[in-house]
Amino acid sequence: MNNTELAFEPIHVLSRRLRDRTLTASALLDVYLERIRHYDDKLHAFVDVHEKKARAAAERADGALADGRTLGPLHGVPIAYKDLLHIEGAVTRGGSIGADQHPRVTATAIERLSAAGMIAIGKTHMVEAAFGSWGTNTKAGAPWNPWDLGTHRVPGGSSSGSGVAVAAGLAPAALGSDTGGSVRIPASLCGIVGLKTTVGRVSNHGVLMLSDTLDTLGPMTRDVEDAALIFDAMHGPDALDARTQAHPRIDVLSGLKAGVKGLRLAIFPAEELGNVDPAVMRAFEDALEVFRTLGASIATVTPPANYNALAEATGKIIAAEGYEKLQDRIDNNQPPMDEDVRTRLASGKNISAVEYIRTLAERRRVMSELDAKLSGFDALLTPTTPSPAIPLSEVEQRVAPMSRLTRAVNLLDLCALALPCGFTDESLPLSLQVIGRGYDEARVLRIGWAYENATEWHKRRPGLR
């Protein structure tokens, strides 16, 4: 197997090679470091590469594995982190230029993955303040979607660098954060898997927050099994994050490959999804046929509210809570912010307390109504994004169409999985979204694994030169 093939192997395959000693952690790390050196000047996925510390960690992993001391299936595997997760001794920028933070803590999610043996390879670029679905950053630059090396297409945001790093084989996995789609949108546009977890399922301790109501962390990987492995290692109660205390660990892995025969899946009428690219709808309809072939039944239900209205309500919560956190920087513009992001956040200044409270009350009402509509269903299926990646030159910052089908999941405190379900004629990825009730990550992963195992879309990779 050559290094290019090795770079695109899923973690669960790499793990077997590491454990049977046909591959060392140091050699595997070298594969990714060399690809970063070769491709990242163009792709711009990484803001920092922690080569020295990663090499030391890989050597320790090799020593332990050689002695038969394994920490589990993630031991010796590199991972990249979105640059809003703190690592003690490393800079956290949050997509900003000139607003560096030097934390004295490490995010709980990183500590747990490190305890499982994962090796931090570096920090990835992101939309400033994690507020933007295109993946642009006028100060730090936008990562380049690796599926089109001739035209700079959007990678999706705000976890833009994480999506590009995994899609381009610069890392086998990355962590992102999701407030309105920021894990799932780059997963969709970059042709990888992204898991949006439920609030309180994964600790947010040691994370630069945008919205206390909506922010979640989730894995971005090459396939569903890898997402399940990482989620399994990092979820569960954390004394440093009170919202996790009510949510004990769950068994993610034992039922992952149980299939979907007998499951009931819901869809919305096509007109309720709004303007969706024809290629996206064709791929979505093909995915529904796969589920029917696998023995699942599919029925149409009406949504409890207009999708655009739900997306707008999500935006109000993000803007109001984001403005509260970043008021001084937004008002004074020091250090200067990405003006597109600053404009979005500044809108939070004009949201009154009454409007904010009413939005939260409407959120609770719609949550209850949706739960009733989905009674008896195991999941809801939609496309992840309404279109494939567009050229950066065509971005209109005043609108956010890429998050129109993802924001409601955050607003209504659900979980969701994005995974590849096709490609356009121009070889751009298309994505399926599997939406589950809150804290039902095990079920959405199971459904995603069944679809993925019946198709080949996740095995395609961009033609990097």
Q: Can you offer a commentary on this structure?
A:
The chain has 465 residues and is an alpha/beta fold. It has one domain: Amidase signature (AS) enzymes (Alpha-Beta Complex). The protein is globular.
Helices and strands in order:
Blueprint: H1 3-7, H2 11-19, H3 25-43, E1 46-49, H4 51-66, E2 78-82, H5 108-115, E3 119-124, H6 160-167, E4 173-178, H7 184-190, E5 193-196, E6 216-221, H8 224-234, E7 264-267, H9 278-293, E8 297-300, H10 307-332, H11 339-346, H12 353-373, E9 379-383, H13 407-411, E10 415-423, E11 429-436, H14 441-453
Parallel strand pairs: 2-3, 2-4, 7-8, 7-9
Antiparallel strand pairs: 1-3, 4-6, 5-6, 5-10, 9-11, 10-11
Helix pairs in contact: 3-4, 6-7, 8-14, 10-11, 10-12
Key structural traits:
465 residues; alpha/beta; Amidase signature (AS) enzymes; 11-stranded mixed β-sheet; 14 helices; 37% helix; globular
Summarize the structure in short.
37% of the residues lie in helices and 13% in strands. It is an alpha/beta fold and 465 residues long. The protein has one domain (3-305, 365-459): Amidase signature (AS) enzymes (Alpha-Beta Complex).
